[in-house]
Amino acid sequence: MDLSLLDWRRRVAALYAAVRDTADPAAAHALWTAGRNDLLSNHVQSPVPEAERSGYPGAPVAPYDPDLRFDVVVDTDVEPLSWQFPTGSDGTVPFRRLGVAALPGVGELDVWWLQSYGGGIFLPVKDPAPDTYGGGRYVLDTVKSADLGGDAGAGRLIVDLNFAYNPSCAYNPEWTCPLAPAGNTVAVPLPGGERSAVL
Fold first, then answer.
1. 11-59 residue pLDDT tens
2. Which residues lie across from 183 on neighbouring strands?
3. Are 152 and 161 in contact (CB under 8 A)?
């Protein structure tokens, strides 16, 4: 491990800070798409295999759809379920269900709290669209700075499905990623966000 991982995390954090500071969600999405593609194509910590980075065309991302953006209250009056994800290198990663976010026209998604060092909100989503990654995508992963904002003091989160992105294991089988559990699987195809990784 070297300081390139620190640089990756700083760049991701700066990208999401710029997203939160951009008032127009569509403009924020364009900024995010360009920034993410730059990282995927050029950074040493990119999950895109090194031999394929120079020719990587960028992640396929659907055009911004304002109907996929939700400012939701997280219902925390739920059974505190636990979920443990075994990894090859980091041991077992524990999650606790913090609450449920109801997205009109989409369904309910479990909101998880990472219980290991650092903590953070984790919100994956899996849908039946034929061109999305079969294991699901991530919308929020705040321990890694993937945070779209919202008034946390009032129990609110911005859940914008246009920002759903493929986990690293979608690009490279050497990565191990927590995938969306049953409570984060919806019945409707989601047209927004990153589509299946095509290398």
1. 999 999 999 999 999 999 999 999 999 999 999 999 999 999 989 999 9
2. none
3. no
Alpha helices in the chain (DSSP H): 4-21, 25-42, 50-53
Q: Which amino acid is at 192?
A: G
3-class state of residue 109 by DSSP: strand
The answer to whether 176 and 87 are in contact (CB under 8 A) is yes
How is the chain split among helix, strand and coil, in percent rounded to 5? 30, 25, 45
Q: Supply the DSSP string of 116-164, one letter for each residue.
A: STT-EEEEEEB---TTS-TT-EEEEEGGGTB-----GGGTEEEEEGGG-
**What is the number of domains present in the chain?**
1
> Exposure string (b/e) for 165-195, b if CB count within 10 Å is 16 or more?
bbbbbbbeeeebbbbbbebbbbeeebbbbbb
What residue numbers bound the domain in which 60 lies?
4-184
Residue 167 included in any domain: yes
* Unique residue bearing structure tokens 């920002």: 163
Report the Cα 115 to chain-centroid distance in Å: 18
pLDDT at residue 61, rounded to an integer: 96
Is 15 among the domain residues? yes
The length of the chain in residues reads 199
d(CA 111, CA 184) in angstroms, rounded, equals 8
